Fold:
Amino acid sequence: MKQVGHIFAKDARHFWPEIAVVLAVTALFAWLYPHTRMPQIQAGSGMNAAQRAVLVTALLPVSWWILIARLVHGENLVGDKQWWITKPYEWPQLLAAKVLFLFVFTGVPLLTAQVVLLARAGFGPLQSLPGQGYDLVLLAMVLAMPVMALAAATSSFGKLTLTAFGALLVTIVALVLIAWLKADVFSIAVPGPLVELLFVAAAGVIVFTYARRRVVLSRLLLAALFVAGMGLAYLSYSPTLVERKYRAGAGTLALQLTLDASRETTASLAQAGERGKRVGVSLPVTLAGLAPEDAVTLDAVQVTVKAAGGKEWQSPWEPEYLGHLRAGNSDATVYLRIDRAFLESVKATPVDMDLRFAVTQLRVSGTTQVAMAAHDFAVRELGICSPIPDLLTPSFTGITCRSPLREPPVTLVRAQWSNEPCGSGAGGGGIPGAGWTGSVATGPADLNLAAVSAAHIDLPNGIDSARANQHRSLCPGAPLNFTRYAVVQRTQYETTIPQVTVPNWNQPPVPRTAVGSGS
Amino acid sequence: MTMTGVMAEALPYPDTRAMGRAAIQTQGLTKQFGRMTALRDVGLAVPEGAIYALVGANGAGKTTLIKLLMNLLRPTEGRASVLGVASEQLRGKALNRIGYVSENQEFPEWMTVGAMLAYLRPFYPSWDRALEDQLARQFDLPLERKLKHLSRGQRMKAAMAGALAFRPALLVLDEPFAGLDPLVRDELMEGLLDRSPETTIFLSSHDLAEIESFSSHVGFLEQGRLLFSEEMAVLSGRFREVTVTLEAGSPTPPREKLPAPWLQYEATDAVVHFVHSGVGARTPEELRAQFPAARGIALEPMPLRAIFLAIAKTNRTQERSRA
Structure:
């Protein structure tokens, strides 16, 4: 291990300007970042501070990029003229020295900045350290490892940058091509172990390059990993993944979805992707049967349209945008994209629609009720929320909430709007507003530079349309209810909507986000 | 039998039993870059304690051979061992006993000479701090100056100090004296000779004069082929420039029947001139038998440069005639 410290010390002496830049940018990041996402600090700071914060946030990975490239090229692995390769370097110790250097001069400063940000956001930083460690591993895999692998296989900063830009360009083209080929097909994250395998393989290439310095082979391996990554991106559109994640008949799901005859079915030429080849059909539906403590998310839908004479057409799995639905949200609109040629072939005759939904079932896991406050207030298992002050009156027009390390669990936030400004003494309160926040993702931390996840809670009915679109107010003391949900199962729900007559689609397009009430 | 043929028979798998342990040994070493063969079937052995000079023109394959030995390149065919370690395994601790200096090395130019030496110290268990100081004085190294601000000669001396201070068992030098002024060259040679025979020295050069004075062994590379590899004294003793003075009109041996060791044969009415590459105790007697009407036979020792020129020219003539 003697060489580790020796090489580390040499690199620290050599790269002090780069280290100084990283430390300065990290310090600026810790100082300015709250301006981007924390309104209680942003108030009064103006746009310039926010823009500076965004700039510094973007500069942080750039400063790492430069440091990693310079560090790896300090003991260049490409070529046969380097001074160091005829010296008795032990490659495991060389690699360990480089990793240690990166941890000390990028990891530790970032962890420190995160501790500062967590403290400034009102969280006890020490409780979050394990999650920060997890976040650091994620950042190392996604940001540091690819740069290190590329740097190990290139001989200079210029070549590394050109290669990276080339790879980025090819990635963009490949992803656009995949998205075009799979237009409007529901994509799903490929199973974690496959992605993890990809990162382990990338780490393996770095180790191999240090161990053998067979750069041509390393480059081929990196190219193969890149192709494998693109393959995974393509694979994410596979219907098999949907069938595996949302297993048909995996469990019971009390849900009934029927056509709402009281509302009109509309149709228009689909807006995106194969415009002109598909007809977008907005199908008003009514939900029933959900238990009061349950909610569902209709993540994707597959429709089989059956017409008289045995004619049939089936869509791929396509994403749905209905948000979370729960008992009491009786109205929703399912958006389907049906082949135009098929619909033209069946004319205007009624068709049966077999709908298959990929459903995430959620159940209440806890409820917290707090009183709205004029300052930050804590919400158990969610984080800390802040009122958004109205600039003209001593009222509040909404709330933002922030959580340490990751988005909170899926949470339904219910509030009571007041028609009048707070403190005016006038009544007119009690207008309900309910909105969802959080995510179903699990894990100790999200991939997040700042370690603080902040979100504005979108509470409907905040604007009084009957009174010239005036803001309603959330007043201190008003009850706020936070209901947390946990995933019960992912399954499929099938239903048939018979005898649907698709109207003439040569109408103004229906907005893609026209959905039923999400609350 | 051609000269090349003699060497090819003698050298593909050198017998090192007679010369003790070999610091370097290669067998059938071949390196191709695409279709170009840079090194072809090279077999050599460098005994421990030798100062072995690998000579040849630019592009003959000297640097390629050294890079193969140092595991900077991988052979296409054949194998090499350095201090008993297969060259392809030469990394990490195996380099503890090997010093390497090349004219083309990319140095850590941001370091000062002193910092470079200090950085190298912990890598070598056998680093001799007193010797480092002595070398720094001997080479008059500017310890506080950065490598990027050094002249070429100073840089080579700094590299040499770093390669000698740990008392390496083997020192591999690729064109160490190229482009240096005579004073620096002498200083470096002095430094090298001080280390011999503790250190086996293997160096490449295209300047025959500079290596003649201190090499114990020599190998000659020509277009990727090792034409010969032997002890300097044996080589010098084996080659003689022969001048035979004849009576006018005396018969001379027909060209197609010339003995193989006779190179660059030239004959006029009264004088025959050639290079004899296989001089032995019986050579005068044999020559008298070949030239019975000779008025005089002179055998002159040859400088290394003349020997190499004779071999190279003969080899090229034979290549051309084969082509």
The first helix of chain B runs from residue 3 to 10. Residues 1-19 of chain B have pLDDT under 50 and may be disordered. The interface with chain A takes residues 67, 70, 72-73, 91-96, 98, 100, 102, 104-108, 110, 119-120, 122-124 of chain B (CB under 8 Å).
